[in-house]
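Progress narrative, work stream C.
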Amino acid sequence: MDLLNPSDRQALAAWYVRNRERSEALFDAVRPGAYEARPIPLRNPVCFYEGHLPAFAVNTLLKRGLGEPGLDSDFEVLFERGIDPESQEDVPGVPSLWPPRDAIRAYGAAADQAVLDALAHRDIAAAGNPVLAGGLAARTVLEHEPMHQETLLYMWHRLPYDRKVRPEGLAVAWIGAEPPPRRAVRIPAGAATLGAGPEEPFAWDNERPRHAVDVAAFSIDVHSVTNRDFLEFVEAGGYEDEALWDEEGRLWLAEEGVRHPLFWELHRAAWFWRGMWDLVPLPMGWPVYVSHAEATAYARWKNRRLPTEAEFHRAAFGSPSGAERRYPWGDDPPDAARGNFDFARWDPVPVGAFPGGASAWGVHDLVGNGWEWTSTVFAGFEGFQPMASYPRYSADFFDGKHYVMKGASPATAKELLRPSLRNWFRATYPYVYAKFRTVGNA
């Protein structure tokens, strides 16, 4: 992409507008009385994010990149930082009175006009400016917004149903039947390429540099662990068996009283799934969404383990020929036949529902239907360098407490579906759309 070419600039602007329209629809889905609510204690209030998204664009592209003064310095400080805090006390910028939505929306409209003008007319790829070179700041803004849209959706998932505006013509959830029998396939030893190379037009700093890792042979589940599978763990007393949990997990269970996945609810002795818009009888063929701690405990119960990041790559992008693919299914771009991603659905679908998205080894749903936990502690690759457009993006979380997730969820934008993309959360963070599968040594 040549960012001096008007058609390429128009493509970036169209992506920006797409992002902003989706965000507006998400905020419109929250009733006014919930606008300052915090449906997840370790997140900022709903209103914060409607200000954060345009403020991030102004701070990153206009101020840090182009050296402009910005539009509203108070807003650009108040709404600056949108990363998960460590605790409620660490939530940034919590004023006694938030600006009204009309003021936040007016700021967003002014920011949109300024950003679109910059995308159309300014030198947004200035080679001598490390923040702008190669379109770095512009692409940082464009990928940042859909990442937050996923955050918004799992926040909205925790809102009471009467505090959300149900979409018209909402499709019935794809419940499916009983899940397929559990089975695993053997992946032979080989190399896995992690990280993004120089040909990738944009990557977050934790994705670089690209490097190869030798992976020993292993076996991996063909399908993600389902609600049916995990129900067996719950009914067998898995949450009460301390030997299955590490110290952090045991403390979490004790302090929070956790006895089942967050997305499950028990009503009159029957299990239900807390969907975005409805409670539905627990769909046994859907993947179970759990924290890393829960996934690890289940894997121990099965005398197996979670895959490493490199093992995930080998299973997802490797092939018997030794060649590596852009996507599990090959090099064709993502589409609706390949998986549950790109905001196509509000909830998961049955495992194996997209056979056209299977990897060369016949492993299903490695991209879509939920992120996949790995056992790899989140850290920079050797040679890591913070990115000039967002230097605090990754390094603040190289603390040994966060774990890499790979793949994609129903709320992951198609533009983010590259092999090198890495997500991460703490082991006891249960809110994210995250599933898992187990591996064993072959």
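Work stream C, second folded protein:
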Amino acid sequence: MPRDIFETAVSAGKLLLHLLLPPTCLHCKRDLARRREEPLCPGCASLLEPVPELFCQRCGVPLPDGGAHCFHCRGSKAARYKCSLIRSALVFSPQARSLVHHFKYRGKTTLAPYLAQFLAGALDRYGELAAFQYLAAVPVSEKRLRERGYNQSQLLARELAKITGMVFLEDALRKIKETKPQVSLNRSARSQNLADAFSAEHCAAARGKSVLIIDDVATTGSTLEACAAALKRSGSRRAAGLTLARE
């Protein structure tokens, strides 16, 4: 078959597929334009909100009234944390929540390259992260991995490494203890729930390195803190966190 006829047939097939099964915005469910590559319609995409300029310099939580640190990181409190910095690309708005939900729970793994672009933009925005040249991903338990079939944080880290050229230490962290879901727990309970849940003892490549831990959403920072503690115990020089969204 001549190439031009083949390409015409493929184009017609894509048009027919679009008419029969039009892709919809992952948030508002409106039909997307035929050639739109993004998973949100223009209106919803415009509502994705970067973390504002005023945020805690340690944990990255937005501070509407200003100041350098939130209550939990103020004064000498920051010295007790193993995760020296947490930064995020977006506020966890309804639109960002829809993206994360489809990516994490609905099997939309093809979102990884799109979402990783926001993480790459955050690296450009936050100059303090330039000291970190190695990436690690927050791990999930073997049980969760079997249920879901993938680790969303690992997919994000892998795509970010492709974009930036950073070194992704795929197996730097392991989850060695089954824990309760964090969503219903308060800050103190979250920390207790994750105590000694992660290990990095097996990863010699992380020793002496400054490692940036990738996750989808930061709420209290307890997960990133537990992962950073595991990396520091195994000999990493420094650990920080970068997430797609900040609640």
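Confidence is low (pLDDT under 50) at residues 6-20. No further action is required on this item.
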